[in-house]
Amino acid sequence: MAAVREATPEGRYGRTRDERADHKLKIVGSVLGVAFLAMVGWFGWDYIAGQDISAEVIKSRIVSDSRAEAHLEVRKERGTDGHCTLRALSEEGGEVGRADYRFDQRSERIDEIVSLRTTSRATAVELTGCASDS
After folding, report:
1. Do 59 and 122 sit in the same domain of this protein?
2. What angle do CA 61, 113, 72 make, to 5 degrees?
3. pLDDT (tens digit, 9 = 90+) per residue, 103-115?
4. Alpha carbons 121 and 62: distance in angstroms, whole number
5. Which of 50, 93, 120, 122 could join 88 in a cystine, given CB atoms 3.0 to 4.6 angstroms apart?
6. In this structure, is residue 8 part of a structural domain?
7. How far apart are CA 49 and CA 112, in angstroms?
8. 66: domain range?
């Protein structure tokens, strides 16, 4: 009986069709991955560069059933005027107070303790956002 060969000798005729397809998929995947990372970087840069004012609540303190305080740090360009909005939250997560605070100082970094009136006892103070007035 004659032996029937099922596959070509390995390495003799170059890559198989599956190996070529795998190689093409790796190249396409790499190109798409780099394009995706570039897009995420572009959107991130655009978001950060578009902000004239940024701020964060360093710490907050509940003073009474009708008042809360927050230590707010604001970073902005020297000539930019703007405002930040804070809100106080109840234990259930509902809003019990909201206020806007204007920042017209001509410095790049402002540290300020602001007071927020509430309709009932708050458990947290949250920064909702900042915007420039230009």
Report:
1. yes
2. 90
3. 888 888 989 999 9
4. 8
5. 122
6. no
7. 24
8. 53-132
